[in-house]
Structure formats: structure tokens, C-alpha cells
What we know:
Helix content: 25-40%
Distance between the termini: 52 Å
Number of domains: 1
Strand content: 35-45%
Amino acid sequence: MKEKKRKNNLYTLSYFSKRLRENGFIVKTLVNYSENDIRKWTIIIEPNVLNILCTCIKISSTNFYFSLLINSENLLRIRTESMEVIFNIINELKKNEKTE
């Protein structure tokens, strides 16, 4: 039986992007992968400022994480079910970018 998609899951591209935009971040979709791929999608957050590539990796309906590549250098892997965690990371990166 095929898994029913809920639109408000953190690993859903539309929900994730919408929440980021609602909180003032610029988001552009780069890739929406096929259903057979464990990667669900890749977006760029704050292009031309932070250049964060965010890829959602979904292993199962309860096992997923986000891979963040920051300015093509630092890679973070984040397991969370809270957008607040994502917001905090991006805001911290933004704050650090302004001080450099």
C-alpha cells in the first residue's frame, strides 16, 4: 500500500519552503528528485547571501534528515522534526556572516 502524503510534513518541499518564506527567508527550488531516490528535494536558502544548499534525505516515513551545504564548504546533517531548529541555524549563520 502506498504511503499517503501529508502536506505539513517537514520533509515535504512545499511545507518546508512555505515556512521558510513566512519567516523572511529567500528560497529557490533547485531539484525535486524522483520517488525512487532517497533524496526528496534540494533548495537554496538565501542565495547570494548565505548560499545554503539544503537537501532533504528521507530514508523512511519516520527517518529523515537535512543536509546543509554552506557556501560550498561546511556540511551539516540535521535530524529534526522542528522548523524552529532550522530557523535557528540559518539565523545563526546569517548573524555570523554579518560579523565577518
